[in-house]
């Protein structure tokens, strides 16, 4: 083969690879779910082709054709419903659908909150530092009664329970702090979730509304990789 051919091949090959990479990475065109526009870094799978729009974008499903839901890597998670998204501020107003499901199934569903909301979220999502914490305690009946006696009114009994075997109590935990410092009650398991509250305060008695009102997430994308 003449040296000229090798040169042509060497020039042609990298160009082709670059084109393929760009094709895979090309973001899906903005799409609608209800009245929400879904665009980079989120994408709705193309219904016709099921085509993915490339990492690091995040898949969103369109629930009941009106509510975008971010699926998360936690297998048991129902995901997070998006109430509002601001692409300029890179922020999302979301509802933890797993916790809402527990409320809807109560009472006597025998389902208890196990997951901390933060455990169902991975990078690049961060819970807004302005959030308040709501702590849910799952207790066997006796431990729950003891906790209520100890809690001095700050603990509220929820509708989540398992007959007379176990119950779920809730407490407003002040400023949200994913790393802990929420206090424990003997024999009870705790799960922490962020809420918005009002005027910097949350009343545990309003736990249904607090869970429904959701909280804010922000996202930070890594700088684009050189190709
Ligand atoms: C979007 O739709 C919801 C109901 O699906 C409605 O409550 C809301 O007001 C709408 N928002 C805008 C900005 O149109
Ligand atoms: C729990 O409820 C069952 C029936 O619902 C009852 O038979 C049982 O005695 C109750 N146990 C306690 C400790 O109250
Ligand atoms: C949830 O968070 C609390 C407070 O940080 C921690 O004590 C608990 O172990 C966590 N639970 C799980 C299941 O990770
Ligand atoms: C979270 O709470 C822990 C334990 O109380 C404390 O050590 C830590 O500094 C707090 N973190 C923030 C960001 O407030
Ligand atoms: C929380 O709400 C309950 C019921 O609405 C009310 O009785 C209680 O006083 C409130 N607690 C605080 C600290 O505002």
From TrEMBL:
Q: Which residues form the Wall-associated receptor kinase galacturonan-binding domain?
A: 28-96
| Cleaved signal peptide residues | 1-22
How does the UniProt record describe the way this protein sits in the membrane?
A: Single-pass membrane protein
Where it sits in the cell: the answer is: Membrane
Q: Which Pfam families match?
A: GUB_WAK_bind
For molecular function, the Gene Ontology terms on record are: polysaccharide binding
* Keyword Signal among UniProt keywords: yes
Which controlled-vocabulary keywords does the entry list? Signal
This one is known as: Wall-associated receptor kinase galacturonan-binding domain-containing protein
Known InterPro entries for this protein? WAK_GUB
Q: Among its keywords, does the record have Signal?
A: yes
Give me the Gene Ontology terms describing cellular component. membrane
